[in-house]
Here is the input.
Amino acid sequence: MNLNISNLGKFIWKSQAVPGYGFQQVRNKWANWLMIRDVKRRRMSAENFLERTRINAMRRNDVLPIEIRELADKEINKFEMNAIPLRINNRCVITSRPRGIVKEWRMSRIVWRHLADYNKLSGVQRAMWG
Here is the structure.
């Protein structure tokens, strides 16, 4: 699934009415240093994904001799800690909030609800009764 949020980003940067965003000065395109760190971890994890997967498969293979598995252990330890996928933290792409993330849109529930209320998200419709 290729999610293009460029139009959404334009709306967010022009609108100061997004909850949780407020009137803060933005020096770069990320909300704060926590988000910069998370983006760095995501990038490193994506770059090293194939190699880490291959080495991990060698480590867990019971058929291979112990010497090869030990070499694979040493190889896996050479990767940076930020290349480990477990260190990636789901954060809102707009406000950098770490909790209450709507996974499909990578936004916090607060921002997601605000944008859904004003028809800024495709495929999202408010529930209506009666």
Q: What stands out?
A: DSSP finds five helices and two strands in the chain. The longest helix spans residues 33-47.
